[in-house]
């Protein structure tokens, strides 16, 4: 036994200097991270009442201690197991040090952009299907400071390891250990990192992040729960978040107060809880005609940007031009603010899962009848054109057996001049024009369905040329938020112009007379209208889920018509089938806007980071964070920007919508249990 411990001690003596120096380097990085995040909090959240840096550290001590212990333990295990392999050890040390530098600097940039700590919930497995695009988006957000600090700190890590390697080659570490073994300073240094490990573990186990945040409750008279939630998020350590389960968990909440009490039947009753208004059957003549159908999934555009003008010029002029010969829906909502889930809702009239999984990615062969399958069985030609890559989020696997005659994506369009160049996440949007016209012209006697999926103005908001820069030289703005906003407006203008060129070309070829163009945004796009709300999938505010939608045909709509009732993405498929005189399947959740029906509510959901469910019911907008039951209620008639949360002042309304949301959550669980069981049953037959 004595020989065993002697060997352990000798191996530790050979590595303790590396453990000490890299441990101190790690502490330096963690300290710098906290200083930088504290500075961001002071700049972004002046109403968060912190009494100084020490006050902030008291909130972060639990997460930082745990992260420090995990990092030091990793370094120790790695050093101990590679003690006899000097070159490999230094290579791994250097790589790990640079990765740690990158990750902490990335987390600082993440906080600057998204106003909160990096958590694993921000990264879904669908990201791994488009890593190059995700990287492009991330690089577009990095500041010059990131690159400078990454260069300096990485250079420090590399230089430090090279110096240690050269010193170690010239030195007999055993002689050094034996010579200095009696010195108090040497013994103290040798025990410093093990003591730091033990202390950090003890502090992590002995502290509670929720209790630390809760001690600040008396500082906030109003909306204390929200501020305590913010403090807890700010205190998180990204290294800790990377290696542990996300707090709360998405979709882990109790699903319903009424689960199992009511018999199940397809089609969740979403009749308005606010109004009993009814809508009679709408005329669309000629009805039951075999129209061509074009579904145009316009990217990342909320309704609130619809009327933006720059120097008197509409940013989305084509939308306004088409509006004059359209049925226009002014209260249209997405069911989940994400492109892949919009594809599901529109093509199948189904809600998303309650979990973070995407149906099309996890269950690509799910037995939900899609629009192309339904129309193909009625002798329609079917096609799809996407300017990006369909590998993202499992779209290709979902679409391949859905009876599309032709599918074109990035790899096909990039070979077709004159627009065969990359713009943002995909090829130039105008590359869709020629194949779209050719598809409709190919057999004018047979009706067709054409699904068009452009990419822009998706982040990073690219344009192919200066002619689309409607904001002028706005991309030179020093304020990155203004710069991103201007870039978005330019990309939005470019996407709208591409749409206009497509419609004009279809009109010139006399292809629109018997064609219904369903034009809608797949989801919105946020620019800090609410805290932490940048991009589209994180929240359920109007800028995320309230989008424009119209049905265009010059002959059917010689003048603009407007529809003010709430409509949803799940209503698009039933509306198309109603126009064409095709019966709907029982598992379709939406209603046709042309049939007699009650005013509907929009059931909303997102689970990209936190799990939120909500309701849009004309005047009222209700949002529930399911893991902790934090609630928001807005009167969007009086408060369209959702500034004043009135949930506490209207407990009866809040309770009414909460009960419905929980009931709807249970319904979705049972819906997919049944659909997946039927799918499995058909496979085994």
Structure notes:
There is one protein chain. The protein has about 675 residues and is an alpha/beta fold. About 45% of the residues lie in helices and about 15% in strands. The chain has 21 helices and 21 strands. Strands 2, 5, 6, 7, 10, 11, 14, 15 and 16 form a nine-stranded mixed sheet that branches. A hairpin with a 5-residue loop joins strand 18 and strand 19. About 45% of the residues are buried.
Keywords:
nine-stranded mixed sheet, 685 residues, alpha/beta, four-stranded antiparallel sheet, 21 strands, 21 helices
Q: Helices, strands, pairings?
A:
Elements: H1 2-44, H2 53-81, H3 86-114, H4 131-141, H5 144-170, H6 173-180, H7 184-206, H8 209-214, H9 224-235, H10 238-243, E1 278-279, E2 292-298, E3 309-310, E4 313-314, H11 317-323, E5 326-333, H12 339-348, H13 359-362, H14 371-376, E6 381-386, H15 395-399, E7 406-408, H16 410-413, E8 422-423, E9 426-427, H17 433-441, E10 448-453, H18 480-508, E11 515-521, E12 526-527, E13 534-535, H19 542-545, E14 546-552, E15 561-563, E16 567-568, H20 572-580, E17 597-598, E18 602-606, E19 612-617, E20 620-625, E21 630-635, H21 651-684
Parallel strand pairs: 2-10, 2-11, 5-15, 5-16, 6-7, 6-10
Antiparallel strand pairs: 1-17, 3-4, 5-14, 8-9, 11-14, 12-13, 18-19, 19-20, 20-21
Helix pairs in contact: 1-2, 1-3, 1-7, 2-7, 2-9, 3-5, 17-18
């Amino acid at each position: 036994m004595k020989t065993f411990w002697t060997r352990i001690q000798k191996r530790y003596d050979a590595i303790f200097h590396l453990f000490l120096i890299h441990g101190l380097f790690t502490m330096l990085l963690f300290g710098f991270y906290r200083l930088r995040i504290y500075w961001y909090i002071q700049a972004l959240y002046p109403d968060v009442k912190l009494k100084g840096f020490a006050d902030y550290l008291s909130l972060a001590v639990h997460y930082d201690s745990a992260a420090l212990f995990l990092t030091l333990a990793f370094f120790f295990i790695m050093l101990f197991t590679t003690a006899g392999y000097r070159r490999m050890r230094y290579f791994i040390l250097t790589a790990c040090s640079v990765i740690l530098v990158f990750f902490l600097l990335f987390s600082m940039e993440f906080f600057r952009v998204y106003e909160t700590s990096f958590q694993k919930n921000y990264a879904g497995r669908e990201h791994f299907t488009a890593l190059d695009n995700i990287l492009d988006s991330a690089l577009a957000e990095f500041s010059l400071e990131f690159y400078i600090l990454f260069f300096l700190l990485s250079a420090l890590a590399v230089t430090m390891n090279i110096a240690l390697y050269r010193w170690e080659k010239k030195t007999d570490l055993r002689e050094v250990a034996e010579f200095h073994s009696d010195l108090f300073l040497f013994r103290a240094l040798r025990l410093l990192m093990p003591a730091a490990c033990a202390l950090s573990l003890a502090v992590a186990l002995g502290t509670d992040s929720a209790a630390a945040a809760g001690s600040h409750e008396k500082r906030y008279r109003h909306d204390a729960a929200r501020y305590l939630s913010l403090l807890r998020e700010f205190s998180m350590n990204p290294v800790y978040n990377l290696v542990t389960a996300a707090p709360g968990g998405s979709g882990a909440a109790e699903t319903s107060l009424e689960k199992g009490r009511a018999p199940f039947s397809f089609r969740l009753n979403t009749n308005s809880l606010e109004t009993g208004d009814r809508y009679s059957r709408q005329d669309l003549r000629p009805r039951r005609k075999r129209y061509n159908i074009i579904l145009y999934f316009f990217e990342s555009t909320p309704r609130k940007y619809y009327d933006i003008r720059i120097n008197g010029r509409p940013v989305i002029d084509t939308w306004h031009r088409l509006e004059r010969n359209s049925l226009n829906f002014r209260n249209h909502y997405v069911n989940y603010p994400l492109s892949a889930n919009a594809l599901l809702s529109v093509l199948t009239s189904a809600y998303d899962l309650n979990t973070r999984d995407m149906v099309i990615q996890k269950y690509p062969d799910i037995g939900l009848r899609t629009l192309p399958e339904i129309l193909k069985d009625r002798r329609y030609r079917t096609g799809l054109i996407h300017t990006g890559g369909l590998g993202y989020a499992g779209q290709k696997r979902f679409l391949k057996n859905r009876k599309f005659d032709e599918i074109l994506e990035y790899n096909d369009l990039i070979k077709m001049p004159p627009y065969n160049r990359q713009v943002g996440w995909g090829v130039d949007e105008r590359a869709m024009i020629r194949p779209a016209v050719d598809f409709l012209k190919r057999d004018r006697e047979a009706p067709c369905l054409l699904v068009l999926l452009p990419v822009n103005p998706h982040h990073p908001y690219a344009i192919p040329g200066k002619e689309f820069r409607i904001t002028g030289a706005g991309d030179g703005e020093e304020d990155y938020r203004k710069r991103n906003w201007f870039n978005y407006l330019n990309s939005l203008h470019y996407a709208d112009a591409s749409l206009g060129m497509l419609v004009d070309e279809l009109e010139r070829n006399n292809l629109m007379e018997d064609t219904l163009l369903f034009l809608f945004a797949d989801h919105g796009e946020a620019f800090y209208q609410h805290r932490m709300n940048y991009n589209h999938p994180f929240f359920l505010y109007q800028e995320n889920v309230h989008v424009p939608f119209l049905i265009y045909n010059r002959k059917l709509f010689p003048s603009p018509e407007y529809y003010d009732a709430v409509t949803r993405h799940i209503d698009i498929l039933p509306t198309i089938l109603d126009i064409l005189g095709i019966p709907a399947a029982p598992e379709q959740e939406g209603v046709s806007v042309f049939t007699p029906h009650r005013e509907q509510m929009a059931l909303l959901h997102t689970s990209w980071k936190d799990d939120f469910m909500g309701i849009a019911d004309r005047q009222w907008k209700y949002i529930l964070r399911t893991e902790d039951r934090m609630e928001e209620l807005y009167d969007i008639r009086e408060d369209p920007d959702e500034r004043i949360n009135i949930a506490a002042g209207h407990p009866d309304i809040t309770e009414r919508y909460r009960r419905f949301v929980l009931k709807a959550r249970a319904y979705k669980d049972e819906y997919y249990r049944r659909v997946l069981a039927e799918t499995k049953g058909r496979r085994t037959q």
